[in-house]
Amino acid sequence: MSSLAATLQNIFDEPGCAKNGSKSEAERKNGCTKQLQPGSAAGGCAFDGAKIALQPFTDVAHLVHGPIACEGNSWDNRGAASSGANLWRTAFTTDLSETDIVFGGEKRLCKAIKEIIEKCDPPAIFVYQTCIPAMIGDDINAVCKAASQRFAKPVIPINSPGFVGSKNLGNKLAGEALLEYVIGTQEPDYTTPYDINLIGEYNLSGELWQVKPLLDELGIRILSCISGDGKYREVASSHRARAAMLVCSKSMINVARKMEQRYRIPFFEGSFYGIQDSSESLRQLARLLVERGAPTDLLGRTEAVIAREEAWAWAAIEPYKSRFEGKKALLITGGVKSWSVVAALQEAGLELVGTSVKKSTRKDKERIKELMGQDAHMIEDMTPREMYKMLKDAKADIMLSGGKSQFVALKAVMPWLDINQERCHAYMGYVGMVKLVEEIDKSLSSPMWEQLRRPAPWEALAKAMKQMQSPISAIARNSTLAETERRATKICVCNTVDLGTIEDAIYAHGLKSVAAVREHTNAVGGCCQRHIEDILVSEPSALRQAAE
Amino acid sequence: MAIVTAPTKACAVNPLKMSQPIGGAFAFMGLRGAMPLLHGSQGCTSFGLTLFVRHFKEAVPLQTTAMSEVATVLGGYENLELAILNIYNRTKPKIIGICSTGVTETNGDDVDAYLKLIRSSHPQLAKLPLVYVSTPDFKGAFQDGWERAVARIVEVLVEPNANGLRDPSKVNVLPGCHLTPGDLDELRVILDDFGLCPSFLPDLAGSLDGRIPDEFTPTTIGGIGVDEIASMGRAGWTIAIGAQMQRAAEVMQGKTGVPVRVFERLCGLCPNDEFMTFLSEISGRPIPLKYRRQRGQLADAMLDAHFHIGGRKVAIGAEPDLLFDLSGMLHDMGAQVTAAVTTTQSGVIERIKTKEVLIGDLEDLEWLAKTRHCDLLITHSHGRQAAARLKVPFYRTGFPMFDRLGAGHQLSVGYRGTRNLIFDIANLVIAHREENDQPTPDKWRTAAGLPPYSGYRSPIGADEGAIA
Fold first, then answer.
1. What is the ipTM of this complex?
2. Interface mutation vs chain A, best among B16, B63, B137, B341, most A CBs within 10 Å
3. Where does the signal sequence lie (chain B) (predicted)?
């Protein structure tokens, strides 16, 4: 058994990680957890990450060994869905008290495991280590080992105390625990040439079930999904799969790569977000299975399903394209799925003004550039204040992000959609992408925004009062001031032509169109076309009258 | 009256309890321009933050000292210093409220000493109030964190009343954490109507009442200002709401001499009669007509609702003060408090009108509700799974309430608040009966075997007859 420190080092040295691959030898030694900034950090801890990664195993009892904060403040807060067991939604914690901390919590942990087995008799118990028992030296590995023997039941230690690092690190530590204690410990009832593993897929809002019918139709069997709607027996026997798809590359790349190494299960990184990505993933799955010996007709059948589904999805999205014309979206997400969502939104005709790449790898970024062009606005780390300003200044019409930045958009009275784990709609697969487009449309076209942006009656009144006393009305009463103002207001920025020149030209020659203005002045009439049109309509302006 | 039992099991299942540090941080959220800071690993903050955001559907300021494993071994001084400097530079807070966690309590960080050191080496912080409260995760519960934080705020920020001058129209209100921003707004209106000028500490109605601020603010968007807290010693009275506020009120009295009145309950007819009488006395004004009418409306609501609430066997899981208040009101309506589970020790729980109060979790509550045939479940949103299994009407109250909207505006105080609450609960019972319990020709056989309360659950025709 390796120590936690050794496991950590092992994870940091992940050859399958693109980010790690692009580092120098010295950088790699430093590990990959970014130093957390006290006072300006956000995001969960390693325990959070481990729990998130494993909790979707539905028939396992998840026991948190720690004080009340770790489980009491966090349980039943994820939207993963189960087709069967509901045990995963029951919270178990040792709720350590002061006495336990003085005398050690191992005894209580032992008793807790016993109580759970007596009450629920689950196929396995996952025991999560947290900071405090780690500090006081509770050896959960030893307790779990003893309990496994005593109760003849897998009791798996998940050694991921919060303070060792970030949520992402916790995902990987959870993966290590699966590799060490679970995967390969049981045999499936039967195998087929079409058995696959999905790794890093959590079945949030039940979205996996939007893709599963397609796999069923093709005869592809999900031997194990790690971990969405997963069962202990499935993951324990997942080493017999023929191929694997790594869905969330950030969370469990170590699992995919080590399973390839140990059990020769080839894997690819794919996504079911977006129409083209879904098709590509289905193709890859079929190809890998055929390479591993599945009958070759799978390829043709897969193409037929793809063609049918794509045609349906494109047709369903088509009506929205005109509605989305000129609409701009800002995408702030964990980053993993950035490029796949970018593609999907562009398919629907939305213009993307920016996307976050905080967690994206270099390869992800290259793909984004491919999709959005070289000048893609990639946001490394945007403060809430910057996001708010961007929305308030209407540089974007809608923001898509995770729940944490929700209020930045909503308080700027801007449409917002949740595309992270707490969301209530499933966006996966062809059906999901159509759903996403529907949701965006519903949000963008809501008549509510217009009402909310309108000032309150007293504010409107106050504004009118202010205008009466404002410098402009003062100028309107004073001709020299008005003239200076007219000369100082630049209309054509490209060629520096001021308002006065344009107005005078219109008056002197009786001009009626932008083209005519262009002939008589230096104005380009490109970016300033709209302004010139306005002047043509409003001639003679109050300022010019005042100047005369 | 009630026997208080403590847990015997090693494994808490489906916790009712939440931790002290976030209760403490919650109190700081009622201060203007505040940034609550948990001294612990970043998960401690992240979990709490998610909980608050899901409850209020609002942006919530809450920061962390992001203690790593190494920092925990070496001591948290540097992390605390960095965190305070970062917050000071980035968000320009008016106050930073610091709560310890299990991690930093276990390794024994002496935060008071750290703060002295930090102040001496960073003179720019001289004017920034830094209030520290010790709130280990492994002791107490959410309510205790709130209680300790408010007492500490009073201790540190309220200035002694040097010249002894008082403004009798000024009233301090120390609300417990079981009151919502909506409750505070209701109380503010009531006090205003008596010509009193209240200062709420903490004032969640200023910061988490759910409105659209004009600008983006990384700290709290409202609440009571530090200056206003300092001047609380000049008030005529301090009104504490909930037994948990006794301690803060006593600190206030000890420091400033302002007399204190604790109202343990503000839900129900009699508690509000007492409250109104008291306000009338201290303001020297008669009870406004508005409240005389509201009292009549509450009385009428009780008449209409007692058919539905009376005789119900209620299972309640809540923090001590909320449990005491709600169970009291329901008892007064004729319901039987059959199962009561709470989170932490408190003086009020043995006075709850029931046989036994368990300091336990939602598994205990579910089991008690099942074995004692309860037919109304009242607890926070985490009770939803139990309610679905028990197939009984479920009223969500307390913190957190993440699966319904309007948590911040749920009312329970005053005549009007009680009236609304009674209607909500009665309607829930009526709807549940309509959906699941329509009378059928066969039902009378089983209904006859039910305990006496079945008399109250008469068919709808009888209710209408009673109203007419």
1. 0.91
2. B137
3. none
